[in-house]
Write a structure and sequence with these properties.
This protein is of the alpha/beta class. The protein has seven helices and 15 strands. A five-stranded parallel beta sheet has the order 2-1-3-4-5. Strands 10-9-8-12-11 form a five-stranded antiparallel beta sheet. A three-stranded antiparallel beta sheet has the order 13-14-15, with no helix packed on it. The protein starts with a strand and ends in a 7-residue tail after the last helix.
């Protein structure tokens, strides 16, 4: 994931140090150096800026005006200032950090790194949230007489039955649905369900053991042993995050 950082500096030594720090970072970072607020706004119009570093160099009013306009921005804003008394003024605008220019430069670099790590955490959180929202908590199971809503977490495994599919639940009940197995596969979360056979998709949260005898079988919490086809062993290894030759 790329991180875009813009720096509005008058102190060239600080700018050089920031650039060197970014170049040595393990993160993929793109650095923009700007000389005026118009340049900064032009960058922001074309790219999403994740972190903005301002040096308050007798331009506090300009920075404040920019912060007012960008009040809804998601950028992490770091202010470098010579005056510790200005911190409360800047904090009104939800800045990420405030550092005195006289502070050790390593502290600034550490705060930039903290902002980068926070952005990664936020992106991972939102990505996971999108995944959770994408996949349904309930699956509609259509039969001739009715449509039942089955909790996804209650499904132990799916079994193909011609053009239909059987759902086996934690309470021991099985249900026949008028969708084929491929249709169900598109509705369920691939971080939870794994297709181990052309006829079976299992809920990995309901897996208790893998049996290696006359082939491979997944033992489920309902004591059913589900066969793993040879061509699906690699998929199961990848899901379990074990070596490709482990099974």
């Amino acid at each position: 994931m790329k991180i875009n950082i813009a720096s509005y500096q008058h102190n060239k030594n600080i700018e050089i140090q920031i650039n060197e720090f970014i170049c040595s970072s393990s993160h993929e970072v793109i650095f923009f150096s700007v000389n005026n607020f118009d340049d900064l706004k032009n960058i922001d119009n074309n790219k999403i800026i994740d972190i903005i570093i301002f040096e308050d160099y007798n331009n506090k009013i300009d920075i404040i005006n920019f912060l007012r306009e960008a009040n809804q921005s998601l950028a992490k804003i770091i202010i470098l200032s010579p005056n510790e008394n200005d911190v409360f003024e800047y904090l009104k605008y939800n800045i990420f950090d405030y550092i005195l220019i006289s502070t050790d430069l390593n502290i600034l670099l550490a705060r930039i790194n903290r902002a980068i790590n926070k952005i990664h955490l936020e992106r991972n959180f939102y990505s996971q949230k999108i995944v959770e929202e994408k996949f349904q908590k309930f699956i509609p199971v259509s039969s001739i007489k009715k449509i039942e809503l089955v909790k996804v977490e209650d499904i132990v495994y799916f079994e193909a039955d011609g053009r239909y599919t059987k759902l086996f639940l934690t309470n021991g009940v099985s249900k026949m649905a008028s969708k084929n197995l491929g249709e169900f596969q598109s509705l369920i979360d691939p971080s939870i369900f794994c297709r181990i056979h052309h006829k079976f998709i299992i809920n990995m949260n309901k897996l208790t053991n893998i049996i290696k005898a006359d082939g491979y079988y997944c033992e489920m919490i309902n004591n059913k042993n589900i066969p793993v086809s040879k061509r699906r062993i690699i998929d199961l290894n990848a899901f379990l995050n074990i070596g490709k030759n482990s099974l």
